Every structure is written in structure tokens, then in C-alpha cells.
Amino acid sequence: MTPSPGSGLNTTVFVLVHGAWHGSWQWAATQRALVGLGAASVAVDLPGHGFGAPLPSGYLLPGRPGLRTERSPLADVTMDDCADAVLDTLRRVRRYGRVVLVAHSAGGGPASLAAERAPDLVDRIVYLSAFVPAGRPRFFDYLDTPENATARGQGLPLGDPGALGAVRIDPLSPDPAYVEELRQTHYHDTPADRFDRWRSALSPDLPLALPATPVTLTAARWGRIPRTFLRCAEDRALPTAVQDLMIAEADRAMPGEPFTVHRLPGSHSPFAARPRELAELLAR
Q1: Residue 1: inside a domain, yes or no?
Q2: What is the pLDDT of residues 232-254, one digit of tens each?
Q3: Within a domain: 2
Q4: Closest by alpha carbon to 136, among 218, 255, 224, 250?
Q5: Tell me, what CATH number does 112's domain have?
Q6: Which residue range forms the structural domain that includes residue 23?
Q7: Are 41 and 27 contacting, i.e. CB atoms less than 8 angstroms apart?
Q8: Tens digit of each residue's pLDDT (9 = 90 or more) over 205-229
């Protein structure tokens, strides 16, 4: 796909917000594809994520001491901290032209809050199988719905999230069954020879604030921003029924700018399985 003259891609910056346990690195292949299409992008590391994320003290040690019980070093990270990281990037790129804010999965919370606080910094917001808090304020409110009953990965979290201050998983688990459940939940269509690379880059802790903190949106601010939902058709982590529920509830709550919905084949992680197709859809 080649941008047509006057398409505006060369004056558009995509601000990319990752989901749970990931980091800015998840977008690298998509960013390379976007550059080939004439679009600039910048990926955000939310606090406590990315290659600089602090780890539980026993995470890399033999026997994994304390992995199920040690309080997370990210327990004090707040939703405000994460929204501020998005806002900082939005402010820095705004001078370059049109800004499209893209959020994946749990990244929908801080991205939505940032857009609510500074709607003039965002020309469009795109949810890639991401949490939309317009209908219900917490990500957990959607994970507890009947529509989410078919979701995989319910056995991946370790320990008590309330005591840990985080939703903790074990990407480096030596248990083949656990690793296979992680693959089936998030990466079932990622080439097999790449899956171990992807899981080894994941962080174990998601600050509990991201799925648990209510995000309040208003029609006058977030609701006035044009919005798109990229619906992952074979998503096993956030089933299509939940995606459709979030879309419908948001459009009922704030009908002024209803969602434009596009379909992507495959899993919850198209940036791993089909980054070029994702980039082309964003560019369109």
C-alpha cells in the first residue's frame, strides 16, 4: 500500500500504547511497516513496563523464591502515572501534525484517561482489542461479564493480586502446560519459532491499578474524539463478545462520535502475528 498524494500520512504521528506485561518493544515490527507506508510513530513505555521494568526479586533465580507472595515493586504505580506517560508523549509530538492515539488491551485505560484530559492533543483514538471505559469504568468490570466466559488464560495469574499489588504471570515458567496456555491465550497464531522470543520479553507484573482503577470519561471531552475499534476476530484473551459489548456500550453512552469498526483476523496480538497488515489498517 502506497500513500496517495495529500493522504496526510506524512504529517500524521501514531502514538502507540502497549497492553499488559508488554512494552514499547511490542510495536517494533508494526513501526517498521508504518515507516514503509510513510507514517511516523512513537511507542510509549508505561511506568513499570518495558525492558527497564523492575522484577520480583526471585524471578530469575533457581526455584523462583517468593514469586507467588512477594509484593510487586510496581504496587504503587497508579492509573494517573500511566496516563501522564501517555500525555507527555502526546504533548511532545503534537507540533508535528495530526496525532492518532493507538491503545492495545489494558493500555486502553491510560490512553482513554489521557485523551479525556487533553482531547485537543488527539485527532483520533484507536482501540486494538482494547479496554474502552465509556460504558463501564474498570477493565475488571468487563472481565467479569458473561461475555468473557470463554476467555482463555484464567489460570495464568499467580498469587493474590490484592496482596501482590499486581496481576502477576510467569512468562519464564518451566511448566510446559503453563507456557502452552500463555501461547494459546495471547499468541496462538504467532509463528512457533518466534513465540519463545516474545514470551521471554514479557514482564511478569501488571500494576493492579490498570485493570482495577475506574476511568471516568465525558461526552464533552473523550466523547468528541473520532474513534476506531480494531476488532481481533479470533481473540482468545478478550473474546469478540466482550469487544462488541464495549463498542455497543460506548456508543450508547456517547453517541456523538460512534465507533468505526474494522476487523483483523487472528489473535489478541496482531503486532506479533501480522504487523504489516496491522500497519496497513492503521494507515488507512
Answers
A1: no
A2: 999 999 999 999 999 999 999 99
A3: no
A4: 250
A5: 3.40.50.1820
A6: 9-283
A7: yes
A8: 999 999 999 999 999 999 999 999 9
Burial class (CB in 10 A: 0-12, 13-18, 19+), 111: buried
| Crossing angle between the packed helical segments 79-93 and 108-117, to the nearest 10 degrees | 60
Could you read off the pLDDT of 22-77 as tens digits, one per residue? Answer: 999 999 999 999 999 999 999 999 999 988 899 999 999 999 999 999 999 999 99
Residues with Cβ within 8 Å of residue 280, at least 6 apart in sequence: 1, 33, 37
Q: Based on the structure, what is the number of domains in the chain?
A: 1
4, 6, 12: which is closest to 34 by C-alpha? 12
All three cell numbers of 8:
496526510
β-pair partners for 213: none
Residue 247 domain flag: yes
155 lies in a domain? Answer: yes
pLDDT score for 9:
66
